[in-house]
Amino acid sequence: MPNDTLLYLIRHGVTAANEGGVLQGRGVDNPLSDFGKAQANRTAYALAEFPLQAVYASPLLRAQETAAAIAEPHDGEVTTVNELAEVHVGRWEGRTWAQIEADEPDAYRQFVDTEGDVGYPEGETFTQVFERVSGALNPLYERHEGESFAVVAHSVVNRCYLATLLGREPHRGRDVLQGNCGVNVIRRREGKLRIVTLNSALHLHGV
Length: 207
Prior knowledge:
globular; alpha/beta; six-stranded mixed beta sheet; Rossmann fold
């Protein structure tokens, strides 16, 4: 339909921290690894024929590099949106889950086992992430009414937001898969949002 607005919500490509199982929230600003760059280029190729009117990204380098590749076949411009930065994981920044479990077993078990919205120690909760991210995305739907645009963000950012579109609480985003350079397509029609595609990675086959 001509009045549909389409958001292509994408997670950034792989970094060395991703490959090493290290938590990287908004406090770790790693570039893409060589594999991550290949993923970003393949994603850019897959989206090159889509009429993207704009590309937005988190300020973090891994998202900026992915967005730059995606924007290149279009007008090449990437607009930074600070509210799209990854979750603040507090004192767990730069550590692996195995290290956290060994060093802080009680805090680890509380975070993993609690069904509710338990935040990262000295960091953010999933609900806090959702509130800032939705506050940034909602105006973009209005700005690009009837158009298509892309947003490059992060695992927890995407998962919190997508969980609510699936009718769940933001903390249930833990159950929503988001692979590196996975593509989600969200359609806005008559003011209502619907997920059309969730975590598509077919374009990454063979990378």
